[in-house]
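We were asked to recover a plausible sequence for a given structure. The inputs and outputs are reproduced exactly as logged, with field labels preserved.

PROBLEM: sequence recovery
POSITIONS: 664
GIVEN STRUCTURE:
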């Protein structure tokens, strides 16, 4: 052994008398996994390398990164459009019929409906543990069996509710002729450009009406040509098909047949033949109708900085990271989009959620750096430089090792799990400090390196294990929080428990091996500046404080133990009474200042869009005036507004038909 030799065995005979136990106390201390790891530094270093290197590799390729965790919401959403119907008609004709059909299905906890002008949204909340795909199929079957829906109601859209992780938005805005069409076409081109990048997979266009091809036939034309609207619609439907037609076998091989008569624009619709005349000419749709490529007749407008706008929302999918997605959009915005923009149109980034993700990572790194520095300085002042260095390494080792466990627990690197890492910064080195101080104490008593390491770690192993276990047990109940919030909060206990368990392994198996043997030359050079702190003799002052102040106070408290116990009980009662008295407020989530100011206006249902637009312009002017009085562009990234939809917390329009209408 490197720094310690086993003591010479006792020369006393081994018989049936008091010398039955042939092992000496020193030999007993060198048995077990703790002593084996302390004596075999190669095994300890291999374990450390596996934790660090494996964690870094897993962080790069195996752990999903997202702003907030994407979880199953245990809810099935049913959207049914009923154009032209009032909320009362939507409720009577659609919502009540579907509610009655799905309420009695297995796994259904609650059914809620929201009816608005022209649309109904039915939310079917599922019981915990319900198989979602099976529940979705049951809901679809139940809705298909409903035969009392109005004839004008559109086909129900049924899907599981999800929380897609939007990373950043790109706003195109400007004053051009036919701005809605120009901006929409430009958004389609930009969308294809973004999807061509490897970092981006899903881009959605928002803030504009859905495309629509309108065919308007004057009544005079119908009478003159003796044709009905139904015949026109049937002709367009029959001419706009794309279906397989089977196969034809030839000598050179098999030829697949397929009709390719899909009509995608107004010119193609206008070319559809309605009737052939006796003279051989054809009556086409364009001969009797006005065919236009336009947008659905709904009240929806969006503007940015007072100009008409359209928004492209970029989402993170799969293993993509929010920072990589945001960087790809920023690079496109700075270098490539200028070639796409016509005169009078500008582009800007909006609602970049990757910024708070970056800030949370920076906060974790800054706190970790401060923690490492404080641990090293304090331990170097009161103990020794080598001990300070190895205890400090316990923080990155524990964090890297815990990352190995995250994929198995289906935990990603997100805002909540990063918060859990920050929480563990104050706990992760506690066990390492206890073990290191115990080994240091044994060395101070004159024992050699290996003997001090083994005796020190064995002396505190049980208390350290109980300390880590009780902390893990304290966080474990968060694993059993029910509902959607439980799926979010489960990230915290999983991360905390993983970090603490790896920290326990590091402090009991790896740290003693590093403190048991001689310090390598390279490590001596690295820790040389820390050794200067040890010469300040802070340890001597601490010992004097313990002997002259702490011990007398402790002795007094023990002699007056009932007074001490009564004081502690009084403090505990006083602490518990603060929330009950109302002096200490209780809130589920703290109220914090946000970076986005939102203002929503809700007029009576049925208000014309012109009246709502006039009020919106007044609000925009007031907001611009406030911004100019307080710094203008130096404090604001832009002002986005919309008519026809509610405004969300990020400043953009809220998705969903129940949040739409000319009165918003």
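RECOVERED SEQUENCE:
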């Amino acid at each position: 052994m490197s720094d310690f030799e086993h003591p010479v065995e006792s020369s006393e005979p081994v018989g049936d008398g008091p010398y039955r136990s042939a092992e000496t106390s020193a030999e007993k201390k060198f048995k077990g996994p703790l002593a084996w790891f302390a004596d075999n530094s190669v095994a300890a270093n291999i374990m450390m390398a596996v934790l660090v290197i494996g964690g870094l590799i897993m962080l790069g390729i195996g752990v999903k990164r997202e702003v907030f965790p994407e979880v199953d919401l245990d809810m099935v959403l049913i959207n049914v459009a009923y154009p032209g119907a009032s909320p009362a008609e939507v409720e009577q004709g659609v919502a009540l019929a579907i509610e009655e059909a799905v309420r009695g299905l297995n796994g259904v906890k609650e059914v809620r409906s929201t009816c608005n002008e022209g649309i109904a949204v039915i939310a079917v909340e599922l019981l915990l543990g319900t198989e979602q795909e099976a529940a979705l199929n049951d809901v679809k079957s139940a809705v298909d069996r409903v035969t009392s829906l109005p004839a004008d109601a559109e086909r129900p859209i049924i899907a599981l509710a999800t929380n897609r992780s939007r990373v950043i938005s790109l706003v195109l805005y400007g004053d051009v002729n036919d701005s809605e069409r120009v901006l929409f076409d430009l958004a389609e081109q930009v969308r294809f450009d973004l999807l061509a990048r490897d970092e981006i997979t899903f881009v959605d266009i928002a803030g504009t009406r859905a495309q629509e091809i309108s065919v308007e036939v004057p009544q005079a034309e119908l009478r003159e040509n003796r044709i009905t609207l139904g015949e026109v619609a049937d002709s367009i439907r029959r001419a706009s098909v794309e279906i397989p037609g089977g196969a034809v076998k030839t000598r050179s091989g098999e030829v697949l047949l397929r009709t390719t008569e899909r009509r995608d624009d107004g010119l193609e619709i206008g070319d559809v033949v309605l009737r052939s005349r006796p003279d051989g000419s054809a009556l086409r749709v364009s001969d009797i109708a006005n065919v236009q490529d336009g947008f659905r007749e709904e009240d929806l407008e969006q503007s940015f900085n007072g100009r008409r706008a359209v928004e492209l929302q970029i989402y993170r999918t799969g293993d993509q990271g929010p920072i990589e997605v945001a960087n790809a959009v920023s690079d496109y915005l700075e270098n490539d989009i200028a070639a796409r923009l016509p005169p009078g149109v500008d582009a800007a980034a909006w609602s970049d959620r990757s910024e708070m993700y970056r800030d949370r990572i920076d906060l974790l790194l800054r706190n970790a750096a401060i923690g490492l520095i404080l641990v090293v300085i304090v331990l170097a002042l009161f103990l020794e430089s080598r001990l300070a260095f190895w205890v400090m390494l316990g923080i990155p080792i524990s964090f890297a090792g815990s990352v190995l466990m995250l994929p198995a627990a289906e935990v990603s690197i997100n805002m909540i799990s990063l918060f859990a890492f920050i929480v563990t910064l104050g706990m992760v080195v506690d066990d390492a400090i206890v073990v290191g101080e115990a080994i240091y104490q044994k060395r101070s008593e004159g024992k050699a390196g290996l003997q001090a390491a083994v005796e020190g770690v064995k002396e505190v192993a049980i208390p350290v294990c109980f300390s880590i276990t009780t902390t893990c047990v304290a966080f474990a109940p968060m694993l059993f929080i029910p509902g959607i919030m439980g799926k979010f909060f489960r990230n915290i206990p999983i991360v905390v428990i993983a970090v603490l368990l790896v920290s326990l392994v590091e402090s009991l198996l790896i740290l003693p091996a590093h403190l048991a043997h001689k310090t390598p030359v390279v490590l001596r050079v690295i820790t040389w500046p820390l050794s200067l702190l040890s010469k300040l003799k802070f340890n001597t002052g601490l010992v004097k404080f313990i002997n002259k102040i702490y011990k007398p106070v402790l002795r007094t408290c023990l002699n007056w133990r009932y007074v001490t116990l009564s004081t502690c009980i009084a403090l505990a009662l006083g602490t518990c009474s603060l929330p009950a008295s109302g002096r200490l407020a209780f809130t589920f989530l703290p109220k914090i200042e946000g970076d986005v100011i939102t203002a929503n206006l809700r007029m009576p249902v049925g208000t014309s869009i012109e009246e709502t637009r006039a009020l919106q312009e007044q609000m925009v002017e007031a907001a611009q005036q406030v911004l100019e009085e307080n710094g203008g562009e130096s404090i604001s990234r832009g002002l986005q507004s919309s008519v026809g939809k509610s405004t969300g917390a990020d400043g953009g329009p809220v998705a969903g038909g129940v949040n739409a209408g000319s009165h918003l």
